[in-house]
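Weekly structure sync, notes
Attendees: PL (lead), two postdocs, one rotation student
Agenda item 3: pending single-chain targets
PL asked that the sequence for the first pending target be pasted directly into the notes so everyone works from the same version. It is reproduced below exactly as submitted, 348 residues in total.
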Amino acid sequence: MRMEPECSCNLPDARDSDGCDTALDLYTPLMSQPRRAVFGWIGLVLLVLGLGLATLASDPARLLAIAVAQERGAGGLELQTMQWEQHSITYLRGGAAGGEPVVLLHGFAADKDNWTRFSKHMKAAGYAVVVPDLPGHGVSSRLPEHTYAISNQVAFVAALADHLALDTFHIAGNSMGGQISAAFAAKHPERVRSLGLFNAGGVTSPVPSERTRILMETGTNPLLVNDLEDFDRLLSFVFVQPPSLPRVVKRFFANRAVESRPFNDKIWGDISGENYQPLEPHLASITARTLVLWGDGDRVLHPSGADVFAAGIPDSRTVIMEKMGHSPMIERPADTAAIYIHFLGDGG
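Predicted structure, written out during the meeting:
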């Protein structure tokens, strides 16, 4: 199944927020952290631009905090924390009160706000959502002595569900988050109502991705940023139509990405190379109804990976979104949520 974009603009209008959380003091500490992920803010920053570029240049962190508060408010999302082993974990919880729970997992070098604009559509459809900063990401703790292998992230998801008393739930993830979601569904099939894989990692695609070719030929990870110019390259690499951002915004995000680089290198080492944990041997153990969703323009993970998931998971269906990059829930959150919500309602 292939999906054309439902609207002429590939990026959401940042002015369509239908809610605002005025408790900015909840969000200001997040903006003071030096290790904010990049992709979580791309959809939100367009809202900031309407608040005044002059103020943005003088205090970008504050205006970004305002944007985050408005977008989280639209999804009814509240910031919460928990302890897991030695980790302090931050997560968002909200959506529709009493709705079926959906756990959403972000990818490598990203954070929980990748799902913020997507989540307001889940709320409107009657679903409750839980969106964590995975250990080592966002404002959850980063412990150099900890191993951030996929199996350890799966253990964290189980602990998060136990903490929230979620016996069964829907789970979906993007990229590395999709790999974690699939690994969880294979290990704990009795807990998973359905599985959503959005441009998911963890399998070897028949056609190597551009990211794979770059890694093999140069040893360079194209998902990591060294400077402002590198940030421009990253946007073009991840999105089919990169957002147009003023230089001051790019510099702000680029600085954050550069500051996060050393620890992201550590996490990458924990999930790749000799530490890579392939999903292919475990796909047949996934009993949940599964949506395999991919952007046809993904340069990070080649869309042919969808065929591997579809062949290995017994009850799966595939949707290929046209003119879409690696992170559909950021690039076109409304379209992506509509596909996912239809899947959730089509068979329970």
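Discussion points:
- The longest helix spans residues 247-271.
- DSSP finds 13 helices and nine strands in the chain.
Action: rotation student to compare against the earlier draft before next sync.
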